[in-house]
Amino acid sequence: MMAFNNARSLSLQALADLMTQAFSNYVAGRLTFDVEAFAEWLWREDAHLNLSQIAYIDQKAVGLAMMARRGNVSRLAAMGVAPDMQNQGIGKALFRHILNQARTRGDRKVVVECFEQNESGMRLYRGADFHTVRRLYGYRCDHLLARQSPWIEEVESAEVARQVELHGLADLPWQATGNALLKYGPPCAGFRLEQACTLLSDPRQPIVTIHALVVEKQAQGSGQARALLAGLAAKFPGKIWHVRTICPEEIGAAVFEKIGFRREPLHQVQMHKVLSP
Ligand SMILES: CC(C)(COP(=O)(O)OP(=O)(O)OC[C@H]1O[C@@H](n2cnc3c(N)ncnc32)[C@H](O)[C@@H]1OP(=O)(O)O)[C@@H](O)C(=O)NCCC(=O)NCCS
C-alpha cells in the first residue's frame, strides 16, 4: 500500500541514503550523498523538509520529492524513486501529491528543470502539463581568448546577485537567480568591468565555474560581457572555464558560443506549470 509523509519522517542519514539510491542510475551520472553533503545540498537548493514528501510502500521509504519555495512559487529541487521500484507509477503518484499540496497552500506556480535526455523525468513532467520555458545548456572552454584589462575590479558576490536581480532575465532558472547567488561567499569572487559583472568559483583553481554573468540593461549587446571574460582570462591564465547546465540558451548563444565555449553533451529543459486555485 502506498502512503506519503513529509521528509521529517526520515532521519537526515536515511534521506541522504534514499537520495543516493534514487540517483544511482541518474542520466547525468551517479550522485552520492553522505549526511554532510546532503545538509549542504538542502541549504543550497532551499529544500524545505516540511514541504518535501516521501513515498512509502508497505511502510518502506521508496521515493522522495524535495521541495523549495519562494513566495507563491515552489520548485521541485529533486525527485527520485529507488531503482528497483521505478516505472511502477510511484513517481507519478508522488508528483500528483506534491502538486496538490502546492495548490492547497496557495502556490501560483511550480517550476522544475530536467535533463531532456531523462526520458522518465520528461514523461513525468510533460504528462502533468508542464510547459517549456527554455533550454538550459552547460559550457566549457579550454582556451579562452585573453586580453589584459587594467580596469577590472573585484566586487562582492552580493553585488553581482543584486545586478542579476536588476538586469537579468525575468524568468531565470531558480539556481541562476540573484537569490541563489547570495549563497556564494569566498573563495568565490565577483568581478566588474564597466557595466558587466560576473561571479566565479575560486579563480585560483584549475577549473573556474562562471556562476553568473550580467550586463546592465542599457549596455547589453555592446560586447561588455565578452570583454570582461577576456580580461579575466588574462588575469587568471591557463584555466578551464566552465558554465553549469543552467545557462539560458539565449545567453549561451549571445555570449559563450561566440567566444569558443562548447556545449556540454547533456542539456536541461526549464519547465513550469501555472496552478489554478
Ligand atoms: C524520474 C523518476 C522519479 C520517475 O519515477 P517512476 O516511479 O520511475 O515513474 P512512473 O512509474 O510514475 O512513470 C512516470 C513516467 O515515466 C515513464 N518511465 C518510467 N520509467 C521509465 C523508463 N525506464 N524509461 C522510459 N520511461 C519511463 C513512465 O512510462 C511514465 O510515463 P507515461 O505516463 O507517459 O507512461 C524515476 O525514474 C527516478 O527516480 N529516476 C532517477 C532520478 C531522476 O532522474 N529524477 C528526476 C530528475 S529531474
Q: Based on DSSP secondary structure assignment, what is the total number of beta strands?
A: 13
CATH fold field value of the largest domain: Aminopeptidase
What ligands are attached or bound here?
coenzyme A
Q: How far is it from the N-terminal to the C-terminal residue, by CA?
A: 29 Å
As for the number of domains, it is 2
Shape: elongated
Q: How much of the polypeptide forms β-strand, as a percent range? A: 25-35%
Q: What would CATH call the class of the largest domain?
A: Alpha Beta
Summarize this, please?
By secondary structure, this protein is α+β, with helices and mostly antiparallel strands. Helices cover 28% and strands 32% of the residues. The protein folds into two domains: 2-107, Aminopeptidase; 138-266, Gcn5-related N-acetyltransferase (GNAT) (Aminopeptidase, 3-Layer(aba) Sandwich).
Description:
With 277 residues, this protein is of the alpha+beta class. It has eight helices and 13 strands. Strands 1, 2, 3, 4, 5, 6, 7, 8, 9, 10, 11, 12 and 13 form a 13-stranded mixed sheet that branches. The site of coenzyme A has 21 residues, from strand 4, helix 3 and helix 4.
What is the strand and helix layout of this fold?
Elements: E1 2-6, H1 12-22, H2 35-44, E2 53-57, E3 60-70, E4 73-81, H3 90-104, E5 109-115, H4 119-127, E6 131-141, E7 153-155, H5 157-167, H6 178-181, E8 189-193, E9 196-200, E10 207-215, H7 224-235, E11 240-248, H8 249-254, E12 262-263, E13 268-274
Helix pairs in contact: 1-2
